[in-house]
Amino acid sequence: MTTKAPAAPATRPLRADAARNQQRILEAARELFATRGLEITLDDVAEHAGVGVGTVYRRFSNKQDLIAGVFEKHVDDMAGQAELALDNPDPWQGLVQFFEYMCRHMAENRGLGEVLMTLDGQQTRFACVRERMEPAVTKVIDRARDAGELRPDAEAQDFFATIHMVDWIADFARTVHPEVWRRYFSIMLDGLRADSRPRQPLTVGPMTFEQVHEAKSACFGRRR
């Protein structure tokens, strides 16, 4: 006779005050990661949220767990945006739509680019999102290339490289020209587009030499 294994106990819902604290912690971490990147500490999050550091540790055992909690939705949204791009009837505009979404969100959120650079097997909470995102991006690229809109030697891996290039200039110029990334976004797209197709308009001007020097000083100051 086979003995039936006992059912696993149901997860108890959080008390109202615990749920409120968890939401405050996540919102505080989201704000700090966006403005300061991933170098913040759990103590920083506790102070920003107005809770004790012990409360943060009860909800998130370490910073990696908190990072996953904050950015899981961001990354899931990216996978969804790649799928939405495939619904655009124009293959090139679908690619531009997705590329602009990614670059804009990374330009507005310092920690997001850092998270995307560290997505690996150790972050199992992101594994299923990667499984959705990478094939969806490949379809967006393949569709534009098959339609003759994208240069024939462009690959999905190029997309991930180019968004990080745009993110680098966004981070570099953040304090002096926060929209200049759009200029290089357009230049990058021109590098990917088939030769016979029209170029992207450059709607944002370059940084001045003074802004370049100021941006260098700001970056050096952050890294000291």
From TrEMBL:
A molecular function (GO) term: transcription cis-regulatory region binding
Ranges of the DNA-binding region feature: 41-60
Domain named HTH tetR-type: residues: 19-78
Domain of life of the source: Bacteria
PROSITE patterns from the UniProt entry: HTH_TETR_1, HTH_TETR_2
Protein name as catalogued: TetR/AcrR family transcriptional regulator
Pfam families in the cross-refs: TetR_C_43 (PF21597), TetR_N (PF00440)
SUPFAM superfamilies named in the record: Homeodomain-like (SSF46689), Tetracyclin repressor-like, C-terminal domain (SSF48498)
Alphabetic keyword roster: DNA-binding, Transcription, Transcription regulation
